[in-house]
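@channel sequence for tomorrow's demo:
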Amino acid sequence: MKRIKTYIHGLDDVLHGGIPDGHIVLLAGEPGTYKSSVAFNIIYNNVKNDKHVACYITLEQGRESLIQQMTGMGMDLESVGNNLSIVDLALIRKNLEKLGQQSWMQIFKTYACNLKENIDYSILVIDSLPVLTMLAEFSNPRIELFHFFEWLREMNITCLLISEMKLGHEDYAEMGEDFLSDGIIHLKMEKVSDVNVQRRIRVVKMRSTEHNSDFFTLLYGKAGFTATRVISE
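C-alpha cells (generated this afternoon):
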C-alpha cells in the first residue's frame, strides 16, 4: 500500500510506513499541541523528499505568520518552491465578495478544485475544520459534513483536517467527523509534575493499518519531530 510518511521519527514505524495514500485524517488536539506544525511538517517533507505537491489552506493564521513560524522551526520553504502552496482566508474572502450569491462552502470547493487543476496537489491540509464549518453556516451539520467528506474523497488526495479540542474534553470532534475520517491522530499536553508538561501523540485509529494506539512523547529538535516511549518522572 502506498503511504504518506509523517516524517515524525518513530511514528512512521507505528504506522508501518505512514498514512495510507488517499486517507482523510483528523489531527485533533488542544491549543498549543503542535497541530499546525505537525501538519506542515508532513507536507513540507513530502514535497521536499518524496516529490509530492501539497497545499496548505489556513482559515485562522495568516500566511506570513505561518511562514514565519515554520521558517523558525527550520523548514526552508525556498527549497520546495512552488510545489507547496499556502493559501489564507483573506484570498478566499475576496473571491466570496466577487462571486456574489454563492455560498462560502461552494467558493471554498471551487477554489480548492481550481488549485487542484492548476498544480495537481496530492496532499491537502485544511486548518482548521471547526472554522470551516462555522464559516459555512451548516444548517444540518452531520449531513453536510458527510457530503463534504465525500467530496474530499472524490478529489483523490490525502487530506489532513486540523480539529481543535476543548480543554479538558475527550471528544475528538463535535459533529461526527471522527466517524467519517479514515484516521485520527491525537495530540495533547500532559502534566507530569508540578513544573513539567509534555506534548504527547497517539494514533487513535487508522483504517487499513494495524497500529499501536498508545501515547508517545512528542519532541522537536534539530532532527525534526520524534515520537518516543513516554518519558515519566
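heads up for whoever presents: Helices lie at 11-14, 35-50, 63-72, 89-98, 104-119, 129-136, 141-154, 177-180.
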